[in-house]
Design brief:
Blueprint: E1 4-5, H1 16-23, H2 39-52, E2 56-60, H3 63-74, E3 80-84, H4 88-91, H5 96-99, E4 104-108, H6 117-124, E5 135-141, H7 154-166, E6 170-174, H8 178-185, H9 190-193, E7 198-202, E8 213-217, H10 219-231, H11 240-249, H12 252-256, H13 258-273, E9 288-292, H14 299-308, E10 311-312, E11 314-315, E12 320-324, H15 331-349
Parallel strand pairs: 1-10, 3-4, 3-5, 5-6, 6-7
Antiparallel strand pairs: 2-8, 7-8, 9-12, 11-12
Bound molecules: pyridoxal-5'-phosphate.
């Protein structure tokens, strides 16, 4: 059976052009990256910094590692950091900020990632108080995974920047899917990144690389991040072999391909709405569709049912299921998935 895997954009495999890039490598194109001598990684980091509009960039093993080294580079142990309450950084990074960074996480609520600045100002008003650990960093996530791949507009990022400047904080963006945000609004990615001090973005999600993420910021920040990457075991040697895929991933044409994924997510939402079951199906902004079932429905039964039909998705909690569209999923796959999901829904709601 042809399996339509909509669990995550992390399941993507490299494109033919990426394999060609790998085949074009020889020993002259790789070296010891901990010594800064891997020409392919150096090229990738330069290319990434340019595209993202920052002075320098660093290749890291994963998004989780990229976020951690960014946090470590901006803070000191004992500092407090402001993190959105449903962010990946808070929910899914195994408390690395606390356990490795010695940081105290203060969560803030938000409307799809956009906070109330009055509330934030209340939190930071005691920042000069000697009885409290200083708050030194504010983190945001764009697109926002748990709200369903929603986009935080550049104007909101500008407000975050104003808030952080007013309060002498640094601003870190978990931009695992920042290119999805840029493509969705038809804006250059720098319209988003110009407002932040640092960004992490993933090569291994919609951009379809097998491994790796990028951290970017000022030269001074990246010097620190490079040391912290070593500290957390991320100093690799002839890593140009895996990083080479990133050179293809950062071509404009490949970035713009994300539009296809967004279109497929919309098609999926439309298709599922046609069935007219009591499920909440929002209009996806990018490549993530999160649908919400009524209280009485057992979502695990739905996930098991569609799996048997050859469609994979994740249940993100007791009531919600996440579908993610990505490279390798075609329009035909989406039509077939709708049909198969329909079979299960009909059986569940009959
Ligand atoms: C928003 C967000 N940030 C960070 C990460 C971490 O990336 P990685 O899985 O490469 O560690 C993910 C992964 O799913 C994510 O969705």
């Amino acid at each position: 059976m042809n399996v339509i895997d909509l669990r995550s954009d992390t399941v993507t495999k490299p494109s033919p052009a990426m394999w060609n890039m790998l085949r074009s490598l020889d020993n002259s194109k790789i070296g010891d990256d901990v010594l800064g001598e891997d020409p392919t990684i150096n090229e990738l980091e330069e290319k990434a910094a340019k595209i993202i509009g920052k002075e320098a960039a660093l290749y890291v093993t994963s998004g989780t590692q990229g976020n951690l080294v960014s946090l470590l580079s901006h803070t000191h142990p004992g500092d407090q950091i402001l993190v959105e309450e449903l962010s990946h950084l808070y929910m899914n990074e195994v408390e690395s900020a606390t356990r490795i960074g010695g940081l105290m996480i203060r969560t803030y609520p938000s409307n799809k990632g956009v906070p109330s600045f009055e509330h934030l100002q209340e939190i930071t008003q005691n920042n000069e108080d000697t009885n409290e650990h200083p708050i030194t960093l504010f983190c945001t996530e764009n697109t926002h995974n748990y709200y369903g791949g929603t986009v935080i507009k550049p104007s909101h990022l500008a407000n975050m920047k104003k808030f952080t400047e007013r309060n002498n904080l640094k601003l870190h963006l978990d931009g695992a899917r920042i290119f999805n945000a840029a493509v969705a609004l038809g804006l250059p990615v720098t319209e988003f990144t110009k407002h932040v001090d640092s960004i992490m973005f993933c090569l291994s999600k919609g951009l379809s690389c097998p491994v790796g993420s990028i951290v970017a910021g000022s030269k001074q920040f990246i010097l620190k991040a490079r040391k912290f990457r070593k500290m957390v075991g991320g100093g690799m040697r002839q890593a140009g072999i895996i990083a080479s895929f990133g050179l293809v991933a950062l071509e404009q044409e490949w970035i713009q391909r994300l539009k296809e994924d967004h279109y497929h997510a919309k098609l999926l939402a439309e298709g599922l709405r046609q069935f007219d079951f009591p499920i909440s199906i929002p209009e996806p902004e990018t490549n993530i569709l999160i649908i919400t079932f009524p209280e009485k429905v057992r979502v695990s039964k739905f996930i098991g049912g569609i799996r048997k039909e050859g469609v994979l998705a994740f249940n993100i909690d007791k009531h919600r299921v996440r579908f993610v569209t990505h490279y390798g999923i075609t329009k035909e796959d989406i039509h077939l998935a709708i049909k198969k999901i329909g079979i299960i829904l009909k059986a569940m709601f009959k």
